[in-house]
UniProtKB/TrEMBL annotation, chains A, B:
HAMAP family reported for this sequence: TMP_kinase
InterPro entries the UniProt entry points to: PurM-like_C_dom, PurM-like_C_sf, PurM-like_N, PurM-like_N_sf, ThiL-like
Residues annotated as binding ATP: 113, 130-131, 157, 236
Coiled-coil portions: none
Residues bound to Mg(2+) 2: 54, 83
Keyword Transferase on entry: yes
Domain of life: Bacteria
Signal peptide: none
Domain PurM-like C-terminal: 164-320
Binding site for Mg(2+) 3: 38, 83, 234
Name of the molecule in the record: Thiamine-monophosphate kinase
Record key words, sorted: ATP-binding, Kinase, Magnesium, Metal-binding, Nucleotide-binding, Thiamine biosynthesis, Transferase
Native species: Indibacter alkaliphilus (strain CCUG 57479 / KCTC 22604 / LW1)
């Protein structure tokens, strides 16, 4: 270790990543896109491959006291498929590596893989490789997903242009609210193990947290309709945080409208019950794994009647900033809190 | 968890992998080869991509009390490049995910990446993606490597044929002997922290353990010479264990000769000093990351003068079994102990 010691918390996760990536050199022409988007892009002759990877640790990314193992397996695949979708590519293959302690039985590992296999079937991906090893403390899962696209079909973070329309799929904030419910019930259970968790009325939000879908369906639909988003990301860290990434990569600003933000009734009601502002949950709650993308004005007609795509605002000049227009018509500066793992 | 509880130790790592893989279905034509070789093979139009991944945990795969962080980073890349080499493919891209505790400073993470970047330069691969997250207990590194080959250039485990010649690169047993030296010096240090470790005379073997090379050079040379091995693996679990995998996948037996097994003088001397049988270290010591491959008799002339390729035996019928012919001329049954992570 060197003499100087800088804590990671001083520069943050994104600061650390920036610092590490300054020293990386790309030498192969086939490495079309390196670090800096939802997935890397590799030339494959008549098409391109996209590659993305996520590392998930027990106690950091999932809590086995309330997350059933099949759900953990499903989610580990879904979050990677979601990153492939975020490039407007079709996920085809995954590798799955796991590290387990001797607390896990063969049956427990099979339960985990039941979820992994269910996700493979649901998303149409093949499990083609991986690694199995032992851990001294808890379950570790590493998934790499590989997808395909034509080069001109890819959507990067960097392509948003002034006057583009900002779209989001599904509804937002549910996964975050679901996490709060699960954490609350866990505390109740720890305080009194005879108490049964009350989860029936929170099924939608807890499912959003425990077993999220990835919007591969939207990628297929966009191809059928003939729309290539000018930019796209998946919403893993929170809507505001992802908008900041698109603005930075594209050199643009954005204006979004509070009354256009999609929120499910159960998410709204549960947020209120938990004394949280529903709009804050929508803007900054992570792990919804919906897609945020921008389209050119001329593509609007093709999507306007889609039941699961919502038009939440538009792209403006970088100098005009990033704003949220509240229901009362006031424009306030958008803030990205995102999820901090450090 | 289900009612029945089977311990993983009852069925072993390979038993667990077999059991999990029975339930996996492959649906895409582009998934040319799934689990069961050193890497998966994915169609890429005019060529194929190979994909391999390894998950490395502090305290299981490396010990930071004697492994410097740059070496850990280098090795994490090397072991994956080695799996690409084992397919007779050229590594082109890698992704690296890390999980770290707050015990790691920014400078420590930079030291790790200095080794990763050095390996990228050494092996000619581009670091194109990854994930950075926090860990509650120790460093976790997950690397995925992607390589390229023409379909007809690939060497699988399953292609060995009767009368083929068995080749190994470099020398064997060094990494295992190096590990024993490092563990011994660690115990000495723990017993008396004022003792300085004596590592000068063990530089070759400790380097084999801490900073192994991957034989991407051999893959390039085989292409230049125009030899495609009939089967190939890298030696990560030990020579005997890898031979068993080739025999099983190819439906063959093997005969190897003790006096043909390559061992470095320092490996030999250190094994003797540590009261270990040098040949057992060569046969069952893991982590050398040399290549073992089989060639047809007609290709022998092209390789016979290669200074770093050794011809250790030949492939025979499955019914004739797997044998080691000792220096005294006695044929003994070959046993695979391999490395057990569980």
């Amino acid at each position: 270790m060197s003499e100087k010691r800088t804590e990671i918390s001083e520069i943050g996760e994104f600061g650390l990543i920036d610092r590490l990536h300054q020293k990386i050199k790309i030498q192969h022409e086939s490495s079309l896109k390196g670090i800096g988007d939802d997935a890397a892009v590799i030339d494959a002759g008549d098409h391109v491959k996209v590659v993305t990877t996520d590392l998930l640790l027990e106690g950091v990314h999932f809590d086995l006291s309330y997350a059933p193992l099949p759900h953990v397996g499903f989610k580990a695949v879904a979050v990677n498929v979601s990153d492939v979708a975020a490039m407007n590519a079709i996920a085809k293959q995954i590798t799955v590596s796991i590290a387990i302690t001797n607390r896990f039985s063969v049956e427990a590992v099979e339960a985990l893989y039941a979820g992994i296999n269910a996700a493979c079937e649901h998303f149409g991906v093949d499990l083609v490789g991986g690694d199995t090893t032992s851990s001294r403390s808890g379950l570790v899962i590493s998934v790499t997903a590989i997808g395909e696209a034509q080069k001109e079909q890819l959507s990067y973070r960097s392509g948003a242009k002034e006057n583009d329309i900002i779209c989001v799929t599904g509804d937002l904030g549910g996964a975050f609210v679901g996490l709060q419910v699960l954490e609350r019930e866990k505390q109740v259970f720890l305080a009194n193990p005879n108490m049964q968790p009350e989860l029936e009325k929170y099924q939608i939000v807890t499912a959003r947290q425990l077993r999220p879908d990835a919007r591969m369906d939207i990628v297929h639909e966009l191809r059928e309709i003939g729309v290539v988003p000018t930019s796209m990301m998946d919403i893993s860290d929170g809507l505001a945080s992802e908008l900041f990434h698109i603005c930075k990569a594209s050199g643009v600003g954005v204006t979004i409208y509070e009354d256009k933000l999609p929120i499910d009734k159960q998410t709204f009601d549960t947020a209120v019950e938990l004394n949280m502002d529903p709009i804050t949950c929508v803007l900054n709650g992570g792990e919804d794994y919906e897609l945020i993308f921008t389209i050119s004005q001329e593509d609007y007609k093709k999507l306007e009647k889609h039941p699961d795509i919502h038009f939440i605002g538009y792209v403006n000049k970088e100098a005009d900033g990033k704003h949220l227009v509240t229901k009362s018509g006031t424009a306030v500066a958008l803030k990205a809190q995102g999820w901090k793992h450090f």
